[in-house]
């Protein structure tokens, strides 16, 4: 565990002073000091420094005085108030919608005999993988006011007099966001429902409670923490979402806070206003995380195990087919249709052309890979960044996870706190902080983007690897130490081989997530450092949706392939020793 | 288990160090949170000796062991290994430089390494040649009878076999001191009993110096040359198993090891020459009892005393030369059959008494007179 060498107390009139100097020096462990110190320094540079700058800029005016003027001026700008209100409505609608979709689906999948349950899980996974700025492309294809293929179908064959769907509206944005985030609710709640030990419910049934009463008084309270956590995640996601609002907002002519920040950073960049506008997002985020920490963690005392037993499965009878139909509809509407539309659009000769075999071409892909076109460079940039980010995050996650789990010293809690702040931090605001902190050093380089990716994604790697280390008994490392291995050697020979699975999963996940990152890239990428998502967004804004679709297909395909790799890592059993 | 000849293969004591204790603790202290987990401990372990730290959970025995291993640093006091300072409040030699062996409660056998790789790790780290490592591994695996399983992975082994791997790994580097932290507590009852005797035989045969932590009194009695009974961060008593069982230094020691009947009374006569006192028991009868010398020095007629009587030392028949006058009057409460004996429950006044006998008792009106085996009564305070 924690053998504290206390080298700072070597001087003194204790018995140790009589020890030979050489022997005392042997207790210093320079390698460990260097590795841990270096990692903490990187952590501070990645997260603490930009966040401090962000707070500083919004409270300090040009002359270095503390002031609230910046806020007043920032929010007095034209349209800013409307954007804030829009953000509020967006969060509200998306949260309600995601719960309305996610909770019943989770119940159907975890607790009923409805057909098509596996389909729902798969499609929730797919819509989770597809970023919203990509689903925008699919839905433009399907539901653009006049040219959307669903609208044309409705008008031409179903007898509608006008187009029934309009994705280029606030309602369309809400829909796309709901489809993007409902998996969070779905996965959290269905996992919780799966994990409730049947005996809890059986105990209530034995005491005479009906099935409904048991559900209301036992089951629901048990999954409440899961629902609350998911709600908070959904709210934060909706509040800080940038991709879909940017793509749709441009066309439908409305703004939310995040798109306003983006506008403020266009030439000439107004850092202090951008920082001030980011503050409401920050405050809501901090509040939510506090609520989560204190209101939910205290309730989350139950360690639940087991799988749903036959007793917990509700037989739906005639309703079974209705529930099955609902599952099918969700799978079709959130996964099959958008993915199909995306692939189709990327192959269609031009948006609006009739769908026929003659009109399917590969010229958009040809253009994507054309040497003289911006898209090809962006693919290379994205791949390089994803490789670098995954490697940096997995390494840092391993060292920091170890430090927090195994090393007792003042401030180890500060490490996990800092890391988790970065997790809750809205990407767009974080990017502003990075821009302010490192623009002089790394302007227009991929390094700038790498710093942002690494800082923002580190929390996920940290949590994954830390969980892996948590499952390793400290005895395993101590056994190596007592056998004569030094710190670094015990990590190399024992810890690392045993958490390799978790590190591998973290690496793959980081890779996929960096590939699809848009909000930070949009702010940080310059003309020489475009990445795939920014190019996709540019294509959408320019109306080149076929090209956007082709590039998006590449992103989705690579992401899904990489995530498939996770199965490789998980299949090799990571050793868990209690 | 067939053991090799008792040649001193493990760290033969050189002339200079032969008389030096392998381990010495001086006024060792450690706070964990708000409690003084270890609160001033002095102990010496001689070469070849097997010392057991025994006590209830939370008594500080594991904390002490972890300080000796170097995983925790003391707040005060000193730890000396082979006469050299290893830990003080200001200095701590890292665990890897202490040349110890340790067997963990969880075994801590590395799941990603084969049995041979586990066992050979210490030699590998020490930079030994491949040949030497192979020879060393073969030697200890032979010792713990696992030679046939050298190429297996731990997941393929039973709990008892993993335990042996852990032991072999700790022995492979020929440590000057072997630390064992409740190594048998995860084994099932019969295997645990078997392993106790094997460990004891191994320790004796290869002249190993061991410090063993357990909360299991039977384990301690089998394994120890000396038992160190700990309670609340302090040492209550250090002694041979017989001393600790028959002449406990305190009520705590008496009750923690074995079953204790504790009867209250008042000193009636003192015979310092024979080291005895006569006690007028509160429930009637007078009883001669041995007593610790230090207590005896202050004892005078009229002072209170508590006498420890072991269940196997209480009889239903009057012995030929009793230490008592008329037997302890007791009422019979219950009887249980335990296979090789009966356990009877009585009450003398308000004091519950447990008695072990070979045959069932017969009682008139549920009353009985209990007799103490002569010379077995002992004053605990």
**Oligomerization status of the protein chains:** heterodimer
Give the helix level of chain B as a range of percent.
10-25%
Question: How many structural domains does the protein architecture of chain B include?
Answer: 2
Radius of gyration of chain A: 26 Å
Quote the average pLDDT of chain B.
89
Q: What is the residue-mean pLDDT of chain A, rounded to a whole number?
A: 82
Based on Cα principal axes, name the global outline of chain A.
globular
What is the SS-derived class of chain B?
A: alpha+beta
CATH superfamily of the domain at 68-361 in chain A: MetI-like
CATH top level class name of the largest domain in chain B: Alpha Beta
For the secondary structure, the number of strands of chain A is: 0
CATH architecture of the domain at 68-361 in chain A: Orthogonal Bundle
Alpha carbon gap, first and last residue of chain B: 44 Å
Largest sheet of chain A: none
Taken as a percent bin, the fraction of beta residues of chain A is: under 5%
Strand content of chain B: 25-35%
Which spans of chain B have pLDDT < 50 for at least 5 consecutive residues?
Answer: 1-9, 11-15
Give an account of the 3D structure.
The complex is a heterodimer of chains A (578) and B (381). With 578 residues, chain A is mainly alpha-helical. The model of chain A is unreliable at 1-17, 299-308 and 572-578 (pLDDT under 50). The radius of gyration of chain A is 26 Å and the shape is globular. Chain A contains 24 helices and no strands. Chain A has a domain at 68-361: MetI-like (MetI-like fold, Orthogonal Bundle). Chain B folds into two domains: 23-99 and 175-252, Rossmann fold (3-Layer(aba) Sandwich); 260-379, Nucleic acid-binding proteins (OB fold (Dihydrolipoamide Acetyltransferase, E2P)). In chain B, helix 2 (115-125) runs parallel beside helix 4 and helix 3 (130-143) packs across helix 4. The longest helix of chain B is centred in the middle third of the chain and has 17 residues, at 189-205. Chain B is elongated, with a radius of gyration of 25 Å. The model of chain B is unreliable at 1-9 and 11-15 (pLDDT under 50). The chains are: A mainly alpha (578), B alpha+beta (381). The A-B interface holds A 1-6, 9-10, 12, 14-16, 19, 23-24, 26-27, 29, 473, 475-476, 478-487, 489, 493-494, 497-498, 575, 577-578 and B 66, 69-73, 78, 85, 88-102, 104-112, 121-122, 125-126, 166, 169-170, 173, 179.
